Amino acid sequence: MPSNKTDSALASYIEKIRELTKPESVVVFDGTPLAYQELLKELVLKKTLEPLSRENSFLARSTPDDVARLEEVTFICSKVREEVGPNNRWQEPTKMKEELYSRFNGCMQGRVMYVIPYRMGPKGSPLSKLGVEITDSAYVVANMYLMTTTGKEPLLAIEEGAPYVAGVHSVGRSLLSGEEDVPWPSNSYKVIAHFPEEREIWSFGSGYGGNALLGKKCFALRIASKMAEEEGSLAEHMLIIGITNPKGKKRYFAAAFPSGCGKTNLALLQMDLPGWKLECVGDDIAWMWFKEDGRLYAINPEQGFFGIAPGTSMAISPHIMKMIEKDTLFTNVAETKDKDVWWEGMTKEPPEDLIDWHGKRWDKSSKEAAAQPNARFTVSKTRCPILDPNSDNPHGVPIDAILFGGRRSSLTPLVVEARDWRGGVLMGASLSSEKTAAAVGKVGELRHDPFAMLPFCGYNMGDYFAHWLSLAKGSRILPKIYSVNWFRKDEDGRFIWPGYKENAKVLAWIFERLEGEKEAIETPIGLLPKKEAFPVEGSLYEKLFSIDKKAYLREIAELREYFAIFGERFPRELEEELTLMEKRLL
Ligand code: OXD
Ligand code: MN
């Protein structure tokens, strides 16, 4: 078993990092609203944040080279290379530590080293976990305050000996005495290294999102997925929503979509169908476990939202717009002349006199977007207007359906129900999506993203698939699994499905299936809604649900080639499932 650090270890760990990084001072963040306000003041003085006209809201602008998650320089450093699999970049742990120690040597000079004790998940939940992030970025501390539970209570638990995951982060730009700081310090050398066996994360050079807020992708997904494999639970890139039907019955769904495919929009959907209600437990990460009653339960380990701003509008996502009306940190959005925010898609016409995300006057006629396409808002979940009453329930919420969705302009129908757990696991493993701006790389390119976890699975994905399969045991009441695709296009390249609020119809169909109220038809790829049982007119139904068998056979051949990268670790059951599907298609 990996060694877990304890209180006295924490003090010596902090001391070890202080000696290495040589900060000017050390501050243990106490997580109080007052400490948060002090941080904001300091960030305004340093020009990292600019106050906005929205109450208690601020704008940060990053440097152009620090705008997204950096998969190319993200490493999993387990002792044995095969443990991390072909889905991760690997570096031998001792070698990586050597490199890190040389980069971190003196890197915090002239800066404050903040220590952030934090908890991921509701207080008292058997699935919640503790962390400590050490960082020289006050912007990171402010974001962690909104995204996790920080301060005395998690610190006390650690002092009492509870295990925690340690993270060390630096923007990688020390300050010589008298040197003036820049608003967004960073380093052109960037690295994000995970040590699952030591439960440790080191991140250097970037101040942005998942690279720097170590509780999110680094801990709650990469490290936690490995912990979940060992513990028999799950740590997934999934939103969690509660849906109530007109009869007052409530069910919870979890849904995995690759980054930038509308998870936050779906998690806060205004369900306009008469009598239906949707409430949000979380928009990005789900930790789940089977309990004695045989059902799968989920908690959201996060306390806030770090959502993509562009594309968000009153018409499409009124709940999100309401949520970010105040108490919000914005990063890389455009600024209006009255010191408010704007981004592409917020209104049809951009307002006059915008300042773009570089801080320059925006030329309307330019091809450059005013807001960076991966611009973000950070806001506490307490601002969520449809927060589920069980969002902080330590016992979690029971999950009845799991959805896998990608951005596919062809092939995948609007919704398909898996025949069984194995078929559903194959659906998750087969997920692929056209790339978005949430990660660096070419937007639009199709890439495999099994379970939407490709950038986040902290171990060999072959083993991860096997772990999912292994959960179907005993008398467990397994959730039903669905594939969804809002992004199918017609011959003219137009989206067939309007998406957004219309997606409520798909959620309602899934709910009614679970209630046994809706019939489905068997097809080679799974169960589709019966034409009469799905609320769209005839020709649209055909466009949304037609199955191109030849294209599916090509997809299967391509999937086989892809799965081959996992070699021996790719589960035989999934190979069999793929062959069965192929036979049904032939
Ligand atoms: C995110 C991501 O920030 O998936 O949630 O990139
Ligand atoms: Mn995400």
Number of helices: 16
Q: Work out the count of structural domains.
A: 2
Shape field: globular
Structural class: alpha/beta
Largest sheet: 9 strands, mixed
Averaged pLDDT, please? 95
- CATH architectural type of the largest domain: Alpha-Beta Complex
Our estimate of the beta-strand percent is: 15-25%
Task: Specify Rg, calculated over alpha carbons.
Answer: 23 Å
Distance between the termini: 48 Å
Portion in helices: 25-40%
Distinct ligands, ions and cofactors found in the model: oxalic acid, manganese (II) ion
Uncertain residue ranges: 1-7
Number of strands: 29
The CATH topology assignment of the largest domain is Phosphoenolpyruvate Carboxykinase, domain 3
Return the CATH class of the largest domain: Alpha Beta
Describe the structure.
The chain is an alpha/beta fold and 586 residues long. It has two domains: 7-49 and 66-231, Phosphoenolpyruvate Carboxykinase, domain 1 (3-Layer(aba) Sandwich), CATH 3.40.449.10; 235-304 and 388-585, Phosphoenolpyruvate Carboxykinase, domain 3 (Alpha-Beta Complex). It contains 16 helices and 29 strands. The strands form six sheets. Strands 1, 4, 5, 6, 7, 8, 9, 10 and 11 form a nine-stranded mixed sheet that branches. The radius of gyration is 23 Å and the shape is globular. The model is unreliable at 1-7 (pLDDT under 50). It binds oxalic acid (OXD) and manganese (II) ion. Residues 69, 209-210, 259, 284, 306, 438 line the site of oxalic acid.
Q: What are its keywords?
A:
29 strands; Phosphoenolpyruvate Carboxykinase, domain 1; binds manganese (II) ion; binds oxalic acid; nine-stranded mixed β-sheet; globular; single chain; 2 domains; 16 helices; 586 residues; alpha/beta; Phosphoenolpyruvate Carboxykinase, domain 3
